[in-house]
Design a protein that fits this description.
single chain; alpha+beta; Cytochrome p450; five-stranded mixed beta sheet; three-stranded antiparallel beta sheet; 52% helix; globular; heme binding; Cyt_P450_CS; heme; Cytochrome P450; iron ion binding
Length: 419
């Protein structure tokens, strides 16, 4: 990632930790452990921001009103020497999303967003999730093997989300491609200047196209509302008198989170189970453990290892003076492995209790779609293990799996298995 070194402290810590090293991309937790032990409030010169790795610091920061969720400075910082006009349409869309807002605006948007996740709506989606999971497994049942990512964890939300949103089939592929392109740049990707410029161009173009599609669907739902997500949100916006120009931003947040994070949660969860056969066997013998198993999968290998905040004023965290305007990376993944909070944090234990992980954040910005995410994971993994009881890694494809080159999103690019 490029950086213009925003608000670099006068005497930056010289210790370096490479979050994009190949080993750290596959398994970040040994590096997080070092950081937590050696420099838990670390200033990273190469990125130009602070990184928190202790549970108590991260949890407090998630609730700290002195930290702003408006990350415009970070997006501009990612461009390095590139012209900010390159991402103007991206910024127009992203800076209005709920997760980028502070109260009172955030409070208003959160109330509206909740209208898309009513109990009735969630229950209606249960059968969609189950039927989609079964259909995807039907496709591979007789093949003796599959790639968890390309055959299950990517297509599952790809099929589910457009149906939940009521997007016409002719528009679904484009909408999901635009969501991925926007989410890639939003997720703080690493790479060369050329790669960053390409990510930025794709994200900016996608922001225009995505917004146009959502506005078109809003107009249709205003005339003829249904029971889909856009209809529910449109009705809520009408009742509250909100500006419909902001609705595409809420939609991209729900779609981005639902698409990118669910995909990674599934692959991370399956990987954890297969690498701990004793826990896999325990779950197969007692399927009622699925809820606590899902919580442990989210803690053990968090699909969103970082949230970002901007310091609204000078402050001190963990004895370090952090200047106003500084970018702060809240290490959710590192916090979830903090031995001060969790007994034997490096042990994967599907019966862990209590399990107060930060996989869905905490405080006012806790994940809006957490209930839907848990439902998808529970149904998907229960069905997978019931239908493919002999699930195991593919011994013919033992190359070290790779994970995304992104700070915010962490899942596998491929995970071959046999059954």
């Amino acid at each position: 990632m490029n950086s213009q070194h925003l608000n670099m402290p006068a005497r930056a810590n010289q210790q370096t930790y490479d979050l994009f090293a190949s080993g750290a991309l596959v398994n970040s937790y040994p590096l997080f452990k070092r950081m937590r032990e050696e420099d838990p409030v670390h200033y990273c010169e190469s990125f130009g921001y602070w990184i928190l790795t202790r549970y108590r610091d991260v949890e407090a920061a998630l609730r700290d009103e002195r930290l702003s969720s408006n990350r415009t400075a970070l997006f501009i910082n990612q461009l390095g020497s590139l012209d900010v006009n390159l991402i103007q349409n991206f910024l127009d869309l992203i800076t209005k999303i709920m997760v980028e807002q502070d109260p009172p605006k955030h409070t208003q948007l959160r109330k509206l967003g909740n209208q898309g996740f009513t109990t009735r709506a969630l229950e209606s989606w249960r059968s969609i999730i189950q039927n989609t999971t079964d259909r995807l497994l039907d496709n591979v049942q007789n093949q003796g093997g599959m790639d968890i990512v390309s055959d299950l964890s990517i297509p599952l939300p790809l099929f589910i989300l457009p149906e939940i949103f009521g997007v016409p089939e002719t528009d679904r592929a484009n909408m999901l491609e635009w969501t991925m392109n926007i989410g890639t740049f939003w997720g703080a990707p690493g790479g060369s200047n050329i790669e960053i410029e390409e990510f930025a161009l794709h994200a900016d173009r996608a922001a225009v196209q995505f917004s146009a599609l959502i506005r078109q669907l809003i107009e249709q739902r205003r005339r003829q509302p249904g029971t889909d997500m856009i209809s529910l949100l449109t009705v809520a916006y009408l009742e509250q008198g909100f500006n419909f120009e902001e609705l595409p931003s809420l939609c991209i947040q729900i779609l981005g989170a639902g698409l990118l994070t669910i995909t990674d949660m599934i692959s991370n969860g399956v990987n954890a189970l297969l690498r701990h056969p004793d826990q896999l066997q325990k779950l197969q013998q007692n399927p009622a453990l699925i809820n606590s198993a899902v919580e442990e999968m989210i803690r053990f290998d968090t699909s969103v290892p970082f949230f970002f905040r901007i310091a609204k004023l000078d402050l001190t965290i963990g004895g370090k003076d952090i200047p106003k305007g500084s970018v702060i990376a809240l290490g959710l993944g590192a916090a979830n492995h903090d031995p001060q909070k969790f007994d034997s944090p490096s042990v994967f234990n599907i019966t862990r209790s209590p399990n107060e992980h930060l996989g869905f954040g905490s405080g006012i910005h806790s994940c809006l779609g957490a209930v839907l995410a848990r439902m998808e994971l529970t149904i998907c993994l229960t069905t997978l293990l019931r239908r493919l009881p002999n699930l195991r890694f593919d011994p013919d494809k033992q190359a070290i799996p790779t994970k995304h080159k992104s700070l915010l999103f962490k899942g596998f690019d491929s995970l071959p298995v046999k059954f």
